[in-house]
Amino acid sequence: MATIPFVSVDALGHTLSPRNRSRARWAAIGFFLVLVAIAVLACGTNAAASPTAAAQAVASGAGGAAAATPAVSPSHSPTATPAPLEPAKPGADPLSLLAWMFTPLFQGLFILLAELYAVTGNVVVAIILMTLLIKLLTFRLSARSIVSQKRMQILAPELKEMTKELQRRYKGDRQAVYAATQAFYKERGVSPTAGCLPQVLQMGLLFPMYWVIRDGLTSFNPSPMLKPFGVNLVPSLNCPHVVGGVIDMATPCINTVVAGINMGQPQVLFNLSIVGFTLGVSAMALLSAFLQFVQSRMLMPPAVENDPSASSQRSMMVLFPFISILYGGFLPAGLFVYWITTSAFSIVQQFLIVGWGSMFPLFGWSPAFAQNHSPRFPVTMPEPADAGKSLAATRHKPEERWASAASTVRPNTHKRSGRRGRRR
Q1: Between 126 and which of 116, 182, 230, 386 could a Cys-Cys bridge form, CB atoms 3.0 to 4.6 Å apart?
Q2: Is 78 helix (H, G, I), strand (E, B) or coil?
Q3: Which residues 6+ apart lie within 8 Å of 67 measured at CB?
Q4: Would you list the DSSP string of 101-135?
Q5: DSSP label at 242?
Q6: pTM (predicted TM-score)
Q7: What residue ranges do the domains of the chain occupy?
């Protein structure tokens, strides 16, 4: 997952202190972890509920993207009967309303995954193909985000000096500083928020993909989800399985086991106990974290001396990808297939635009193939629009300020000796 670059100027135009920027970043990370925890707890309530309540509960896709309607079999008790996967219906509580709102997205992704599985017969291949289709549809947005981040890095030194000058000129007037900064961005043809939309879209798809893989791949009868408006869009997928005239409710409709790994369940190599906390170590989570590290490091801003903001941003971009290792113990393996494919695609896309970027030197190692490498589609700065007309363009450099100040001093053409002895 690519990280969103932080801007050192807030909405009011003043520069944030390094301490406040650090707090904002950690608050963003904490907010993300809280969202993940809420999603996991919401999706795990059906397992924690009592058998009777589970038969009447909502089996969620987006915290409930699919509603669980009991399907009682004569040969099974109602409390032990699993429910087919059905679209959620709006209810009085906020959770069911949210589930109903996310149902079209959940249902669309699941139908696409089921269709690709019906064609390929392999759930891993189906997840990879679906991920590639999503990345191809958002290719232009992702490329625009990469170009925007690179241009912001190119403008960073000039923007830093300009911000100091504007704060000196408009001391105490934050709106004027903000207006001048925005004029500078507009003049240079760069938008500091252009890279946010792809990141938000990627995060927005991550949670529905989790519910599609967790609920869709583990359901014995997802047929209701495959029939929007009563039309079966995946007729080649026969669900549920019938063995000896009895519906097999223990076997998922889609075969999720590939190479001995169940894609609908977490893939854990071993458990590691850390101060009362058990961490499930997953090989797929480790591979996903490594690819995210490479993706983030390629777009990492260059190191700047005496700049705590750039230093903290670089540290966060290094550490943030490895947080996904903590998810390996409870997220399904199929989600990491999606994550790995997304990161690999983004690495190739970034390589074509920025080359190796800031990937090397790595721990002092700089390979020969990375030196003097030119990307296939290098980032160029757009031609300035209305150059010299913005407030930002009228700023003065230090030497210009000194020359301007010296020009306002009127030379003293009178000598003090000539005034001595003058009679009044």
Answers
A1: 116
A2: helix
A3: 58, 59, 86, 87, 88, 89, 96, 99
A4: HHHHHHHHHHHHHHHHHHHHS-HHHHHHHHHHHHH
A5: E
A6: 0.72
A7: 99-257, 266-378
